[in-house]
Known about the structure:
The structure holds two protein chains of two kinds. By secondary structure, chain A is an alpha/beta fold. Chain A has one domain: 3-Layer(aba) Sandwich (Rossmann fold). Chain A has ten helices and seven strands. In chain A, helix 4 (94-100) packs across helix 5 (102-110). Chain A is globular and about 50 Å long. Chain A starts with 22 loop residues before the first helix and ends in a 7-residue tail after the last strand. Chain B has two domains: 3-247, 3-Layer(aba) Sandwich (Rossmann fold), CATH 3.40.50; 255-388, 3-Layer(aba) Sandwich (Rossmann fold), CATH 3.40.50. Chain B is built from twelve helices and 15 strands. Chains A and B meet through loops of A and helix 2 and strand 3 of B.
Amino acid sequence: MKKIFQRPESLKQEPFRYCPGCGHSLIHRLIAECIDELGIRERVIGIAPVGCAVFAYDYFNFDILEVAHGRPPAAATGLKRTLPDRVIFSYQGDGDLAAIGTAEIIHAANRGEDITVFFINNTTYGMTGGQMAPTTLIGQKTATSPLGRDPKTAGFPLRMAELLATIEGASYIARVSVDSYRNLIDAKKAVLKAFRYQMEQKGFSLVEILSPCPVDWKLSPKESQIRIQNEIIPIYPLGTFKDAYQESTL
Amino acid sequence: MAKIVAVTGNEAVANALKQVNPDVCAAYPITPQTEMMQRFSSFVSDGKVKTEIILVESEHSSMSACVGACAAGGRVITATSSQGLALMYEILYIASGTRLPIVMPVVNRALSAPLNIHGDHSDSMGARDTGWIQLWSENAQEAYDNTIQAFRIAEHMDIRLPIMINMDGFIISHSIERMEYLDDDQVQNFVGEFKSLNPLLDLEHPVSYGPLILTDYYMEFRKAQDDVESKVPGVVLDVAKDFEKLSGRTYGLFETYRLDDAEIALIILNSAAGTSKDVVDEFRDKGIKAGLLKPRLYRPFPYKEIGEALKHLKAVCVLDRADAFGGSFGPVYMDIATSLYPYKERPVLINKIYGLGGRDYLPDHAKLVLNELVELVGNGTVKSYKEYIGVRE
Lengths: 250, 393
C-alpha cells in the first residue's frame, strides 16, 4: 500500500507546545511541507524571531539562526550574500516585523534581497501577553489598550503587505490566512511560490499570514477562526499585492 | 496611614508611578518588565492618572519619545529590561548629556546571546557609564521606595539627570511580597510639582538642545557633567532623610549589615543580599565576625564612603551577577577595588560571579564563600581572585 500522508521530514519528532488553536503549528507545518516538496531541506536556513516562535528551532529539522528582535531581514541578507546557493527565510511576527523591525524589512525589500519572509500577523504581541501591536484593529481590546485601540493616539492597523508592495525592489508580496482549509490551500501555494522565487533568483518575497491567537484574543480556537473571517480579513484582505514576474496569481 | 499589601515588584513600582502621576509615559513591552507598563496603561485607560501614554514601536523610540517629552518640559517615565535597555543605549547618552530627568525602572534581565529572559545584572551594568544615576533595590519595598525617591533625585535643580531604578527580573518583579504603600497624597506631596528647567518653546527664553560641540567646548561640557555627578550622593542622602520622615524607612548610599565590627564581608547587589544576610547571621551565631554591604547608589559610585566602610576588614568577597568581559573582574568588584586602592591597609579582595541568566543563588553559595573567606584569613592564601560559582564545569 502506498503511504500518502506523513510527518514532513522538515519537522522534528517533537510535539508542538504552542497554545491550543495557535496558528504557529499550522504555519510551521505548511513551511515544512513546502520545503520537503521542493526538496531543499538540506539547503534551507531559517531565522527565528523574538516572539512565541522563538522556539522554531525546536520544531524545524534544519539549521536556524536566532537574532535580535526585528533584525531577521538584515541577518537574512548577511546569510544570503555569504551563502547565495542556500534558501534563506525569516519567520517573523508583527512585533518583530511591523514594530521594532520596520526599518529592516523595508530596506531588505528595497534592496530586492533574494530572501523569503513569512510574516505572521495575529494583530497582537502574543508572547508578552497580548499587548497592542501596530497591526491591532481599531477598537480591539488588548492588555495595553483595555478600552480598545484608539486611532487618535495609537494610529491605525499597519498593512505591511500593501506597504511593501509599493517598493520597487520587492518581487512577490501576498497575504494569506490559516483560518480555514480553503485558505490553507492558498497559503501553501503562496509559501511554495515565495520559496520558488528565491530559488529562481527572482528577488525579495514575503507572505503575510493571518494567524489566530486564541489565548490573547480571549476566544476559543473556533471563535478565533471566525474572528479572522469576519473581522480581520475585511481589514487585511487576502490576495497577491505584487508579483513582479506576473505569473498567475493565487 | 501606610497600607499593607501583598504585591509583585512590578505591581509595586507601577503603583509608585501611578501615585506620582507623570505627564508622559512611552512604553514598549519586554519580559519581565511588560507587566509594569501594562498595569500603568490600565491606570491611564481607567483615568487614574492623567499621563499621556505613547505605545511606541521599539525601545529606541520609547527613549527618544522620553527625550522629546522631557525637553518639552514634562515629567517623563518609561521602563524596560535587557535587550530593551541595550537598544536604548544610544539615546541613554542623549538623555544624560542633555540633562533630562527621565525616570526609568529597569527590571534586570540577562542579555542575548544566548537568549535568556531571567534575572541577572548584565543589562544595567552595560549602561553603568552612560551618565544615568542608578539605584538598586533588594525587594519590592525598596523598588517602590526608590522609584518615589528617584523623581526627587533626578529632578533636583542641582542634578537634572536621568535615573534608573533596578530590581531583579522574576525574582522580585514576579514574586509577591508583603510591603507597605504610602498614601497617594503623601507621594504627591513628597515628589512635588514638576519644575521644568529650560523647556523648549519657552518664547521668553528660547533654547536649543543637543547642538554640535566640537573641539571648542566638548571637553568643558563633559567636565561640567562630571561635576554634577559629584553632587548626586549628597542629594540622594537629603532625599532619603525626607523619605524617612515620611515612611520610617531608612536609606543611604549603601546598606551595611553587621559590618562595623566584621572581619570578613560579602558585597552583593539586589535580591541576593537578602539571602546572604541570613547566612551572615548563621556565621555570627557561630562566633564568626561576618558582615555585608549592599550598594544602593551604584552610579555615581560612592567610592570614598564605601572605601571607609570596608577598609577595616580582613577579607572581602564581591559577588557579581554579571561579568565584565575583557579578561577582567565583575563590574562591582572593579568599583570596590577602586574604592579600597587608596588605603595602605586594606582587605584582601576576591570576586565570585553568580546567578547569571537567573541561575539560583542559594544560602549554600553564601556559606561556601564565607567559609573561603574564613580560610583565607586563617592561612593568608588566596585560592583564586575570580571564580564562577554555582556553575557546571
